[in-house]
Specification:
By secondary structure, the chain is α/β, with parallel strands linked by helices. The protein is 28% helix and 24% strand. It has 2 domains: 3-122 and 213-230, 3-Layer(aba) Sandwich (Rossmann fold); 131-207, Alpha-Beta Plaits, CATH 3.30.70. It has 6 helices and 13 strands. The strands form 3 sheets. A 6-stranded mixed beta sheet has the order 2-1-3-6-12-13, sandwiched between helices. The protein has a 4-stranded antiparallel beta sheet with strand order 8-9-7-10. The protein has a 3-stranded antiparallel beta sheet with strand order 4-5-11, covered by helices on one side. The protein is globular. It starts with a helix and ends with a strand. The protein binds ribulose-5-phosphate. The site of ribulose-5-phosphate (5RP) has 18 residues, from helix 2 and helix 4.
Length: 234
């Protein structure tokens, strides 16, 4: 277990209060947080988790974190999730684990999104990490061309797009929602909000991995401490 991830996950427990409904993110850092949450539940803390992927649901069950289906919640107080890149305005690239659609549905519906990352995920500008875009398999070549045009139009340095393969490398990765992932090597995304807006206009795009104006706290883990940064969102 990376110490930086562990420190970030541990510091994020400060945001958890008794009785909360909590969006449970996906990925290795989120799983460390879920393990820690399980210890709190064993100690008597009451909460329910809304999982953002099948893998997260399995991790929560293993660690004794009670779950509730997304369709049965009336309010999500907090979501805690990892990220692939974070810029100084708290914009994110997510989707390295192919869960971005469900992650965004839950984070967007939450009162607060807290992002837990190691310091290596903090960047001046987004785009070195290939931007994951979740697409419907139908008409994927058309969608890929439209994505290329949107990236170019919004000023991305490059726009090379690759269909993500499954773990066995014998076909495309299928997301929990039954879609494909196109990983877009942008190099630099000079205007994340413009890129996000243009990608959202494309019918075949189910969702993209740019999380703009959603996160309100970033917990950055280092080897010996964690730093919490917060901003107020109306
Ligand atoms: C999954 C995600 C993850 O949060 C992101 O890939 C970070 O993962 P990790 O904590 O393993 O570095 O967006 O879709």
């Amino acid at each position: 277990m990376s110490q930086a991830k562990e420190n970030a996950a541990s510091a994020a427990l400060e945001f958890v209060k008794d009785g909360m409904t909590i969006g449970l993110g996906s990925g290795s850092t989120a799983e460390i947080f879920i393990e820690m949450l399980g210890e709190k539940v064993a100690g008597g803390l009451k909460l329910q988790g809304v999982p953002t992927s099948q893998a997260t649901a399995a991790c929560a069950r293993e660690n004794g974190v009670p779950l509730i289906e997304a369709d049965r919640v009336s309010r999500i107080h907090l979501t805690v999730d990892g990220a692939d890149e974070v810029d100084p305005a708290f914009n994110l690239i997510k989707g390295g684990g192919a869960c971005l659609l469900r992650e965004k549905i839950i984070a967007h519906a939450s009162d607060k999104m807290v992002v837990i990352v190691g310091g290596n995920k903090m960047v001046e500008n987004l785009g070195a990490f290939p931007l994951p875009v979740e697409v419907d398999p139908f008409g994927m070549a058309i969608t890929a061309e439209q994505i290329y045009a949107a990236l170019k139009r919004s000023g991305c340095e490059n726009a090379q797009t690759t269909l993500r393969q499954n773990k066995a490398s014998d076909g495309p990765l299928i997301t929990d929602g039954g879609h494909y992932i196109l990983d877009c090597k942008c190099g630099l995304i000079p205007s994340p909000a413009d890129t996000a807006h243009l990608l959202s206009q494309i019918p075949g795009v189910m969702e993209h991995g740019l999380f703009i104006d959603i996160a309100s706290a970033i917990v950055v883990g280092e080897d010996d401490h964690a730093k919490v940064m917060e901003l107020t969102r109306e």
